[in-house]
Amino acid sequence: MIEIRITITAALPYANGPLHLGHIRSTYLPADIYARYQKLAGNDAVYICASDEHGTPIVAAAEKEKKEPEEFVKYYHDRDKSEFEKLGFTMDIFHRTSSKENREMAQHF
Question: What is the domain count for the chain?
Answer without folding.
Answer: 1
